[in-house]
Amino acid sequence: MKTIKILMIIGIVSFGLFSFNKLTQEEWKVPAKYEKMKNPTEASKENLATGKSLYSKHCKSCHGNKGYGDGTKAADLKGDLGDFSSKEFQSQSDGALFYKSYIGRKDMPNFEKKMNEEDMWITVHYMRTMGK
Description:
The protein is mainly α. The protein has helices at 2-23, 32-35, 45-58, 60-63, 87-90, 94-102, 117-128.
């Protein structure tokens, strides 16, 4: 009986610490300049195919094949990787997605030296398909 109480206390404390970490995760502030940006590229079949290829090369290992945040490297990261299919994610402006994906922060790497801006905008179009 004593063992069960101890296990219950450990479980409650662990859940509380996990929840606290989620609640206290720093909000990702997007500068107004980026928030208002419109995607300058077309969401054509060709660009979506290119976006899928870029996503597979640069994003899939952390964010997963369908953008659920369950990639092979996800367990090694501290932050919330998000769910690209969620309404919350999809409600962000294209500029906000561009900023977060291109500039990055903490575990999210900066891609300014890995791809050009046009490729990132095309990748944003592909990320939009994950909400459908």
